[in-house]
Every structure is written in structure tokens, then in C-alpha cells.
Write a structure and sequence with these properties.
This protein is α+β, with helices and mostly antiparallel strands and 635 residues long. 65% of the residues lie in helices and 11% in strands. The longest helix is centred in the first third of the chain and has 70 residues.
Length: 635
Amino acid sequence: MMLYQTPRLSSLSTKLLMLTIAWLLLAMTSIGYTLILSWKLEGGAAAINDAGSLRMRSYHLALMVSENAAPPLIQDEEQQFALILARLKKGDPARPLSLPDNTAVHQQIASIEQAWNGDILPLLTAETAKPAGQHKMERTDIASFVNLIDRLVKLVEEDNSRNTTLLRFFQMALIAMAIVGSFSMMFLLFLLVIRPLNVLGEGMMKIRDGNLDARVSVDSNDELATIATGFNQMADRLQDLYATLEQKVADKTRSVEEKNRQLAALYNVTAFLHGTHTLYAMCDGFLSRLMELTAADAGSVRLVDDKRGRLELVCQSGLPDEMLENDDCSPIDRCLCGDAVQQPFSVIHRFERKPSEEEKSCQRAGFASISVFHIRHNQNNVGIFTLYFYQTPQLPPQDQFLLETLGSHLGVAVENQRLAARDRQFAVAEERNLMAQGLHDSIAQSLSFLNLQVQMLEAALQDKQEEQASENLACIKAGVQECYEDVRELLLNFRTRINKEDFADAVRTLLDRFEKQAHVPAQLSMSGNGLALDPQQQLQLIFILQEALSNVRKHAQAQRVRVDIRNEEDFLMCIRDDGCGFNEETIAGRRTSHVGLSIMQERASRIRGQISIHPHPDGGTEVRLLLPQTEREAA
């Protein structure tokens, strides 16, 4: 609220300034008159002094003439008299020297000048021209002239007396003005400043003590009146705030409770969605919580099938049987729910605003309104959920925003479930591929060998070649035993389950089993304290070690096997045997068809490892698997 602007002429500063200027002008005028009077008194005193000098020089001239003084001396004295008379008449501001400015004084100085020029000078000249000894100038000859000078002195003294009286008057007036002005300023300061400030202070004390009805009277238009007006406005505002404080607190409390309700609902739903559920259980639990939150009479969750152009019903609650039997909401283009799929925001339909010929199944079922909200993931439509109401609900904008947010959480949960299902399918397919490769590399080849031996046995029996038949039977027996061992090894491999706490035990168990099957001693060396392997890395390393030991058992004809594992910044696993080794050129040409090597390469690539297989310089074969530090940290 803007305060009232004080008129310039009515402001306190203007009043004080005008009073100060008036008092200053009066004081300066009095001081000016005092100075003028002092200047006149000084000028009059100097004039009296010069007039006395003229009187003295008049008698001195008469004496010089009577005593027969030298004419030059008399002339010099005459000149000095004339100069003083002229200066007295003209005045001298530098001394200061001046005659009173009145007619009597001017007439008197004119008479003196006339008597000097017309009487005294001719008399002096005549007496000076007489022979020596005859000079005689009586006192009476100059007495009348001196009387004129005395008269001038008396007039000047009378004027000075009047000026002295005026000077004393103005001095007394200045003293009176100082006293009156001081009391006047104190009174005005009390009236214009101190008293309004005291009134404001009293009002503040009342406000401080809780008396919000306290107000300050405003009876002027100055700055303090503006402050008083502002004080009253502040008191009005405080009183209004205090009067409505309880209501404001209640409103804020309701707002906080509403926010808490929304946060509780958001936490409840998201906590539920983060659990492990089937699609139906997840959507059904989500829907039941939203119906409880919004007091909806029914609800449904449908997922979008873009390829078929349909909305597939996942779960529902409270929908009439006729709506479920007709299922008009399945085609996207035949339902209000389907129309809302492409809308950017939630859609609320109130059926009293719809023409009767456009009635939908939900309207025919007796619902007064429906609210359709999106289930989205990364701005993509996953589905919708619909809340049905027999009475028109009041869904404020914040509740609609909350429901849209919860729909986004459901969309993320649905997509995560779909991704998890796809990951499981991919993992199963990939593991089946590895199983097929393992079966092909072991059992399939053994069965192919047995099939060939059976054919040779059949031919030997037909030709009655008993020695060949016995040889074929021995090969078949050895092949069946080898196939049995391969199957047993594969079964043991498929049952392998490890975690990061017993990786070393799993390696030792694997080596113990190898020693029992192949009757070949195996030595294990483990060192280092690097980063722990995650379960996926451990599992693939165990499978690679199994495949390497299987190749040793089948092909190496080794007497010893050594496994070195160093877990430092880089993880290194080295499997070395002292068997017959292999020709790198031959293996390189058969690498694409050698299933065992391909399996190890694929398993190493899964954990971003680097595997190498090469003959050792001292004989035998060495398999090295390197898992760099950068790949371990990225995992």
C-alpha cells in the first residue's frame, strides 16, 4: 500500500526551513542595522576629532599671525586646514569618517566653509601683508568662526547620541530575538517533532503489548503525519493478519495434510511397484490403491497393442458384467478410453454433457463420469488406466498430476517386467546355444564315432571277420565310456552355482573333480587382493576353466596341470598342461569349427575379457584369460 505523499508546502522540512529563513532574515537585518549604526558612530567620532582639529588650527593660525610667524609656515598651516575641512565635508570611508546625513549638519559645514573662505582667509592674508611688528590678530577676530565649528561638533555629537541609542536598542532587540527564537524553536520542535514522535512511540508500545486496536491520530500533512499514516496502515495489516491467522494456519495445515497424503500415496504405490509381482498382480494392486485414493466406484487397466489396434484388459474392479461381456473398449477407435490414448494429458468425461445418441457402454452402465490417465514410459504410451464414478467426482489438478505421475511409475514397472522377461528369454536361448555347442563338441562327435564303429562291426560280422569285430567292439566300448563321461561332466557343469564368497572353493572343487576323472594331478595357485568378481564374471570364469580342463582330459595326454590365478588390478587366469600341445596353424584353420574354443571365446567376450590359447615353449598348452582393470570397473 502506498503512503500519502506530503504536499511540499505542508511538509515538516518546509515549515522548519521557512521558520529558519525568517528568523535568519530578521537577525541579519538587525545585525545589518547594528553594523550601519556602528559605522556611523565611528564616522561621527572621526568627524568630531577632525572638527576639533579645525578649532585647534584656527587658534594656532591666529597665534602664528600675532607672533609674526614666517609666511610659508602660515601658508602651510592654511593648506592643512583647507585639506581637513575638505576631508570633513567629503568624508573618508577608509577611516571611516563621515558627517551625519542631515540638513542642519550640511548647512553648518557650508557655513564654516563660507566663513573660512570669505572671512578668515582674507583676514589672514591682510594681517600677513602688514610690516613686521604690526601683526595683530585678536582672539575676537576668530571667535565667531570657532563658534561655527563648535556648533558643527555639537550637531555631530547629537547625531551620535541618537545613533548610540538606536544601537543599544538593536542590541537589546538581538538579545530578545535570541531568547524568543530559542524558546520558539524549542516549542516548535516539541509541537512539530517531539510530540508526534512521542505519540508514535506510545502507539508502538501498545502494539508491542498486544493492543492491535491502537491507532495514531493524523492532524497534519507533514512527514510525521505520513509516518503516522503508515503506522496506522501497519496496525490495520497486523490486526487483519492476526484476525485471519487461525484461518491461514488451518489452510496451511490442510495444504500440508494434502501434500502428505499425496506423498504417502506416491510412496505406497511406488513401493508396491518395486516389488516382485506378475503383471496381473502388479496392475491389480496398483488399481486397488488408486481406487481407494480417489474413492472411485470401478476401475480398469488396459495395455496398448499398437499392432492389433486394441486395448488389452489386464485387470478390472467393479465393472458391470455387461461391460465385460460386450468389451466395447477393446478397439482403440470405438471407446472414450481409446480416444484418450493419443491425448497429451489425462481426459475426464462427464456424461451429462454428452448427447444421448453418443452414449458409450460405460454411460449405459450408469456411470456419471470417467477419468482416463496414461501409462507411459519415456513418453511412449504403454497403456491407460480408467477410474469410473457413479457420482461426478472432484479431482483437483494436483490429484490429476499425482495420478499421471503414478501412471508413469506403472509404465516403468511394466516395461521393466517386459525387459526382464526378454532378458530371461535371451539368457535361456543363449545358454541353450552353448549347451548345443557343448553337446555337439562332445556327445555328438562321440555318437558319430560310435555310429561309424557299429557300421564297421556290422560289416565285419557279415564278412565273419572276428578279429575286426572284436576290435570294433573294443572301440565301441571305449566310445560308450567316453560318451558317458562327457554326459556326466556336462551334468556336473550345468549344476554349477557359485557366488562371490566361494569362488575359490568352486575352483578347488572343479580341480578335485578333474583329478578324479582324468587321474591327472592339478596344482592351484591363487594370489592378489584386487576387486571382487561379480557373479556373472565368476560364473563365466568357472565355465571357461571347465572347458579348458575338459580339453586337457580329452586331447592333451598330460601328466600335470597347473592353474595360476592372480587377482590384482588386472585379473589373470592361466591354465597350463605338459601334454602333447598342438599345431597353431592347424588349430587356426579349424578354429571356426572347433566348438570348444568358440565356447571359451564367447564366454570371455560376455565379461569383456581377452583369451589366448597357444603352445608353451617348454611343451604343452597354455590358456590365458585376462580381465583388464578398466573392464572390471565398468562392470
